[in-house]
Each structure stands twice: as structure tokens, then as C-alpha cells.
Amino acid sequence: MLNMRLVALLLSTLPALSSAGAMGPMPSGCDTTFFAGGAAGVGMLQGNYEAFDQLNTDYRYARMGNDNFLGGALFGVQTVMPNSVYLALVGNALYNSQSATQFLSTGPTTAPLRNHVVSLLNNFQFGANIRLGMKMNNVTPYILGGAEAGTWEMGLANRSATWTRGIAPNSDIQYKKTLIGGQAGAGALIDLNPFWSIGMEYAHSWLSHISSNLLDQTTLHFWRHKAVVNQDQILFSVNYKFSL
User: Fold this and answer.
1) What three-state secondary structure class fits 97?
2) 76-97, pLDDT tens digit by residue?
3) What is the reported pLDDT for 115?
4) In 3D, which of 197, 183, 188, 186 has the Cα closest to residue 33?
5) Which of 5, 60, 167, 195 could form a disulfide with 51 if both were Cys (CB 3.0 to 4.6 A apart)?
6) Where are the extended beta strands (E) located within 159-221?
């Protein structure tokens, strides 16, 4: 009679055991995964340009602002600790369509000629950051900090037949420099299922500057040309997790 009762008890527990097996073992430590994803969004140039001669007899300043498309890949490793703290190391490689141009006056203020042309270009950026957040059910808000880099180009052009601020008549000069700077921001991930998630992220990057000294052959004054580059960006992503 006792054996029959034990058999009945075991049979009654099979459905529960089957469900537990389908769900997998409950994690006893950190849940660590690799992930990769595609990202797209908008970058917003927050730069400025200034030019002045060595005697400070002339000075020109212009804001360099423009919106551009960003698109590329995100990849990294992330972990969720038993106390729901989220920590991740994330890399990115993004195409950047940035192309900003300003025309500066070179003639009299009553009827200015805009022959001094300044441009800022970039077509690729990359970087890495650390995320720190808190997983709350299927939503994980986080803050981030890291570094971003890219090869930027400052273009200087003179569209006149005379020397303009150290730029030869009817000529163009390009200066390329890999700029590296700090990045900070915040974002959130939403888990769609155990493998897929979507994300939204804002970040600001301080990318330093490009500068050059040019000798004006008419005035024999050196001109300092400097472009400061900062960028805001908003990215939307779709991510896939690979279990370790």
C-alpha cells in the first residue's frame, strides 16, 4: 500500500519537474553573455571654428553645427549580477555622414564677400564604453562612460584671386586628424525574449580639435585656424545575445 502511494506521489510531481527542466536551471551567480547588434541614428555636430592673425588685428568665428546619419555595429560582453546590477563593456564601429560647411565674410561689412570657406568632414568613428545600470524585469536603464574616436577633416578654401587669411588665391587645403575624446551618456535596453533586445542610447563626445598655422603672403602675418569638434548622438539598436 505504501509503494502505491509513493508511485502516485512521483507521478503527481512529473508535470512540475518537466516544467522546471524546460525553463532550465535557476542561475546561482552572474548571468554573463556576449552580444552583437546593428545600430542606426543621428549625430549632431556641436563644433566651432575660429581664425585670427598673430597681431589680433582680425578675428573670425563660426558655429559648426549639422545633423548627420550614423549606422553600424555594436558588440561586447555584459553581465547581470544576482542583485540585478547590470555591467557591460561595449565597442562600436559606425559610419558617419558628417559634412558641415560655413562661408565666412572677407569683404566690407556693408556688402560682405564670403570667399573664406570652412568645412568639417567625417565618415567613420569607433570607440568603447562601460555601461552601469539596473535590470528591472525586461527593462535595463544604464549610464555610460568611455572614449570615442574618428578621423576628421578640416577643409579651408579661398574663392578669391587674392590671399585670404593665409590661404592662397583660388585654392583648397585639407587637414586630417584622428580625434580621440571622452564620451558620456545614458540609455536603456528592452528584452524581447531571452536572446533579442532593442535599445536606445544618447551620448555626448568631446573630440578635441584640429588646428593649423598659415602664413599670409600679402600681410606676412601668421593665421591660426582651429576647429573644435564635439558631437551629440542618438542611437537605436537591435541586439542578439550569445550564451557563454
Assistant:
1) strand
2) 999 999 999 999 999 999 999 9
3) 87
4) 197
5) 60
6) 171-191, 196-215
For residue 46, what are the contacts with CB-CB under 8 A and spacing of at least 6?
65, 204, 230, 231, 232
Contact 239, 199 (CB under 8 A): yes
C-alpha dihedral sign at 84, 88, 93, 98 = positive
Helix (H, G, I), strand (E, B) or coil at 155: strand
Query: Would you call 159 helix, strand, or coil by DSSP?
Result: coil
Compute how many other C-beta atoms are within 10 angstroms of the C-beta atom of residue 81: 14
Count of alpha carbons within 13 angstroms of residue 110, beta-carbon side? 0
Among 110, 72, 107, 104, CA closest to 91: 72
Q: 147 - beta bridge partners?
A: 128, 182
CB atoms within 10 A of CB 187: 21
Tens-digit pLDDT profile for residues 184-206: 999 999 999 999 999 999 999 99
Average pLDDT over residues 106-121: 76
Q: Which of 22-26, 59-63, 64-68, 190-194 has the lowest mean pLDDT?
A: 22-26
Query: How far is 72 from 94, CA to CA, in rounded Å?
Result: 4
Domains of the chain: 31-243 (2.40.160.20)
